[in-house]
Automatic annotation (TrEMBL):
Annotated binding of GTP, by residue: G16, L17, D18, N19, S20, G21, K22, T23, G64, N122, K123, K124, D125
Protein name: ADP-ribosylation factor-like protein 6
Domain of life: Eukaryota
Record carries keyword rRNA-binding: no
Organism ancestry: Eukaryota, Sar, Alveolata, Ciliophora, Intramacronucleata
NCBIfam families, A to Z: small_GTP
InterPro entries linked: P-loop_NTPase (IPR027417), Small_GTP-bd (IPR005225), Small_GTPase_ARF (IPR024156), Small_GTPase_ARF/SAR (IPR006689)
Native source organism of the sequence: Euplotes crassus
GO molecular function, one term: GTPase activity
Membership in a protein family: Belongs to the small GTPase superfamily. Arf family.
Binding-site positions, Mg(2+): T23, T42
Keywords on record: GTP-binding, Magnesium, Metal-binding, Nucleotide-binding
One Pfam entry name: Arf
C-alpha cells in the first residue's frame, strides 16, 4: 500500500496566551527541513502541518495576543482536538489564561462537541514554573467531566514532554465511522 491510504488525518487548533510557546511547540514537531531557526509571534493565525505516530495533523496555530483571541471561536467547530498551551512560569497571567479557557468551554463549537483537550504546561524548565498538578488545580481541570483531557509538562524548545502529549491526543482523536 502506498500514498496516504490508511493514514489518519486530524485537524487541531492550538490556543493559549501570547508568548506561551504555541508556535515553538509546532516548530519542534515539524520535519527538520521545515523548522524555523527563529520563531516570531504569530499574527492572526498560521496553518501548519506535521506527522506524528501515523497521523497527519493540520494545526491552526492561533495568535494569543488579546486582539486576535476573538478569532479562536471561528475554528472551534472544525477542530477534532484542542491543544491549550500555558506558560507555566507566567504566574501573573494564569488567571487570564483560565478566563480564556472558560470562554472556550462556553462556545458552542467546543461546548456541544466532546473534543479531547491537551494542556501543555510549557516552559517547565524555568525557575518557579508551576507543576502540572498546580496548573490543573488553578484551572480546575478536575471539573471537566464531559470530555477527555490531559496535562503534560513540556519544554517546547527541547521537545521534552511534547511527543508524549501529542501521542496522547492522537490516541483520543475521534475514530472514523465505517460506512
Amino acid at each position: 500500500m502506498g500514498g496516504s491510504l490508511g493514514k489518519k488525518k486530524a485537524k487541531i487548533i492550538i490556543v493559549g496566551l501570547d508568548n506561551s510557546g504555541k508556535t515553538t511547540l509546532i516548530n519542534y514537531l515539524k520535519p527538520p527541513k521545515e523548522t524555523l531557526s527563529e520563531v516570531t509571534p504569530t499574527v492572526g493565525f498560521k496553518v501548519e502541518s506535521f506527522k506524528q505516530d501515523k497521523i497527519n495533523f493540520t494545526c491552526f496555530d492561533m495568535s494569543g495576543q488579546g486582539i486576535y483571541r476573538e478569532l479562536w471561536p471561528e475554528y472551534y467547530s472544525e477542530a477534532q482536538g484542542v491543544i491549550f498551551v500555558v506558560d507555566s512560569a507566567d504566574k501573573l497571567r494564569i488567571a487570564v489564561a483560565k478566563n480564556e479557557l472558560e470562554m472556550m468551554f462556553e462556545d458552542p463549537g467546543i461546548r456541544d462537541r466532546p473534543v479531547p483537550i491537551l494542556f501543555f504546561a510549557n516552559k517547565k524548565d524555568l525557575p518557579y514554573a508551576l507543576t502540572e498538578s498546580e496548573i490543573a488545580e488553578q484551572f480546575e481541570l478536575d471539573n471537566i467531566s464531559d470530555r477527555d483531557w490531559h496535562i503534560e509538562a513540556s519544554n517546547a524548545l527541547t521537545g521534552e514532554g511534547v511527543t508524549e502529549g501529542i501521542n496522547w491526543l492522537g490516541a483520543k482523536l475521534p475514530k472514523k465511522k465505517k460506512k
